[in-house]
Write a structure and sequence with these properties.
Helices cover 41% and strands 20% of the residues. It has 242 residues and is an alpha+beta fold.
Length: 242
C-alpha cells in the first residue's frame, strides 16, 4: 500500500514538473518572439509541434507558425507527414477554423434546394466575385443538396447594391442564379426592404475570419476557402457526413 501511494505521489510530482517545464518553455518562446519579432501579432497559444524540437505558435485564432526552443528561428509554412501524405498544418488550421454548422444564423441566408436536399452546405459569396461565378457553375452539377447562401458583399459599394437587389427579390434563389450564371439584370431593391442581414453577414464573416469568397462550410463545421469543382464538393459533402 505504501509503495503504491509513493508511486502515485512520484508520478504526480513528475507530472507537475513537466507542466511547470512546459510553462517555462512557453514563457521563453513568448519573450524571445516579442523581442525578435515585435511585428508578430499577439500570440494565442504556444504548444509542441508534431515534429520533435519544434513548437507551434498560434496567432489570430488559426494562423500557425513554428519555432525552435529558444525562438531563434521562425518558420512560415506547412509540415507534411511524408508517410501518410498528409498536410499536418492544413489539418490543424482546418480544426481551429471549424464552426458549429447548426449555429449559423440561417435567417440571414436564403436557400437553394436541389433534389431531396438532404445534404447541407453553407456558402459566403460576393455577387461581383469572378471565382464565385465559376463556383456557381460547378455547383450546378451537385444534386440532393440544400445550399444556404450568405450574401457577403466585401468587394465594394456595387457589391452591396447587388446584394440588396438579390436579398429583396421575390425569389432570391432564382434571382441569384440568374445573375451569377447568366448575368441577367438585377431588379431594383425596394427602399422599404430590410437589408440589415447583409451587414450582419459581413460582421459574421469578420468573426469567422473569412478573408475571401467563396468560402464554404460543411455540416461537420469544416471550411473550404476558394472555388472548388463539383467533384471536390461531392467529396467534402461525403466526408463531412461520415
Amino acid at each position: 500500500m505504501k509503495k503504491s501511494i509513493t508511486t502515485r505521489l512520484c508520478l504526480t510530482i513528475a507530472t507537475l514538473a513537466l507542466g511547470v517545464s512546459a510553462l517555462a518553455q512557453e514563457a521563453v518562446i513568448r519573450k524571445n518572439l516579442a523581442q525578435h519579432f515585435p511585428e508578430l501579432k499577439a500570440i494565442d497559444q504556444v504548444s509542441k509541434a508534431p515534429v520533435n524540437g519544434l513548437y507551434e505558435v498560434r496567432v489570430n485564432g488559426s494562423e500557425i507558425y513554428y519555432t525552435d526552443a529558444d525562438a531563434s528561428h521562425l518558420i512560415v509554412g506547412n509540415i507534411y507527414d511524408t508517410q501518410k501524405q498528409i498536410n499536418l498544418t492544413e489539418q490543424r488550421v482546418n480544426k481551429l477554423s471549424a464552426i458549429k454548422f447548426n449555429n449559423l444564423p440561417f435567417k440571414d441566408a436564403f436557400t437553394i434546394v436541389r433534389g431531396n436536399g438532404e445534404r447541407k452546405l453553407a456558402v459566403f459569396e460576393d455577387p461581383n466575385c469572378g471565382y464565385c461565378k465559376r463556383f456557381e457553375h460547378d455547383l450546378q452539377g451537385v444534386n440532393n443538396v440544400t445550399v444556404y447562401m450568405f450574401l457577403f458583399p466585401i468587394l465594394g459599394p456595387d457589391s452591396v447594391e447587388k446584394s440588396k437587389a438579390v436579398w429583396c427579390a421575390k425569389d432570391k434563389g432564382q434571382t441569384w442564379q440568374d445573375w451569377m450564371l447568366h448575368e441577367q439584370a438585377l431588379p431594383s431593391a425596394s427602399p422599404m426592404c430590410d437589408t440589415a442581414a447583409l451587414k450582419r453577414n459581413v460582421e459574421l464573416g469578420r468573426n469567422f475570419r473569412i478573408t475571401g469568397t467563396p468560402t464554404l462550410f460543411f455540416i461537420d463545421g469544416s471550411r473550404v476557402p476558394g472555388a472548388i469543382d463539383a467533384a471536390q464538393i461531392e467529396k467534402h459533402l461525403t466526408d463531412s457526413a461520415s
